[in-house]
Amino acid sequence: MSESPKKVIVGMSGGVDSSVSAWLLQQQGYQVEGLFMKNWEEDDGEEYCTAAADLADAQAVCDKLGIELHTVNFAAEYWDNVFELFLEEYKAGRTPNPDILCNKEIKFKAFLEFAAEDLGADYIATGHYVRRADVNGKSRLLRGLDGNKDQSYFLYTLGHEQIAQSLFPVGELEKPQVRKIAEDLGLVTAKKKDSTGICFIGERKFRDFLGRYLPAQPGKIITVDGDEIGEHQGLMYHTLGQRKGLGIGGTKDGTEDPWYVVDKDVENNVLIVAQGHEHPRLMSVGLIAQQLHWVDREPFTGTLRCTVKTRYRQTDIPCTINALNDDRIEVIFDEPVAAVTPGQSAVFYSGEVCLGGGIIEQRLPLTV
């Protein structure tokens, strides 16, 4: 008697990547079911009915593929474990990455547990562009095959145990191939554009949205030379390296270089700007990272040569990591890097392998 097929629950978002993931797993002989997660209900009304449209798309895909779609509401977990932390970080003048938190707390924790315990799953699957490789009994996280779409940066908090229970079918494909499969199958999601915006909350005017939860505190905009040249509406609306939305037209001394945010003085509620995207004040020689997560779950000691990304879609930067203690490391770049932003994540790689990462606690500036 042949063994019954392994059961996989695919996180169906109503997008093309998860749709094609479900079909690929069917082709590979798994018993496939879908799960649609509702994680936000704070202000759902006419203007934010995207969740209903996404659910309808997910249902249409599942109907087409002949698979069952379950739904679950993780709104309480999302609020407690992702959104409140997100607001705390903004309050402290840092710039968090909600997608990383969301993957850690919702997709690979709440969803993983629900799929295993309530739905009897052997694996979960998502439409992330990453790959897994099992080496010496431990699962590794690899970059997605499509370098333009690789999402390993957002998944660095996962441990090898979570990766061992997860499948990433589209990670082995390029995005155009995924769209072509969806078109050939006649899936409603084939031409749907990729979602952007805050994980699960969707696209909305970020400034208005944040302003509903955190009172904005206007303050001064000053140059690196100490000249006051404008007013900001709240430090939380600005991030290092930002050029747009400063509301300061014109340039000093007739030079044409635009203004960039180079620092935030949280204590005095002052935004500091300079001209030129490679202004020395914007450059860092390294960083200190904390809240470390290593995929192999082994504590890091000593020194390591590897590469780092300090934001998504950045070219890898060669660097040296030095352990400071159990949960803090110093990272020294081979070349200075612009706009290293506290609150964002530094993610480390050895070739194709994502080693893990941590939250940027502080940057080590080029100029003191």
Description:
With 368 residues, the chain is an alpha/beta fold. The protein folds into three domains: 7-206, HUPs (Rossmann fold, 3-Layer(aba) Sandwich), CATH 3.40.50; 216-277, Adenine nucleotide alpha hydrolases-like domains (SH3 type barrels, Roll), CATH 2.30.30; 281-365, Beta Barrel (Elongation Factor Tu (Ef-tu), domain 3). Helices cover 24% and strands 32% of the residues. The chain has seven helices and 17 strands. It has helices at 16-27, 50-65, 75-91, 98-117, 160-164, 175-185, 206-213, and strands at 7-11, 31-38, 69-73, 123-125, 130-135, 138-143, 166-167, 219-223, 228-232, 259-265, 270-275, 283-294, 303-309, 317-325, 328-338, 345-350, 353-365. The strands form three sheets. The chain has a six-stranded antiparallel β-barrel with strand order 12-15-14-13-16-17. A five-stranded parallel β-sheet has the order 3-2-1-4-7, sandwiched between helices. Strands 9-8-11-10 form a four-stranded mixed β-sheet, with no helix packed on it. β10 (259-265) and β11 form a beta hairpin. α1 packs across α6 and α3 runs antiparallel to α4. The mean pLDDT is 89.
Give the helices and strands as they follow along the chain: EHEHEHHEEEHEHHEEEEEEEEEE
What would the average pLDDT be, to the nearest integer?
89
Number of helices: 7
Low-confidence stretches: none
Give the C-alpha Rg: 22 Å
Task: Please name the CATH topology of the largest domain.
Answer: Rossmann fold
CATH class designation of the largest domain: Alpha Beta
Q: Which second-level CATH architecture of the largest domain applies?
A: 3-Layer(aba) Sandwich
| Structure classification | alpha/beta
Total domains, how many? 3
The span between the termini is 71 Å
In terms of DSSP E residues, the strand content is: 25-35%
Major sheet details: 6 strands, antiparallel, barrel
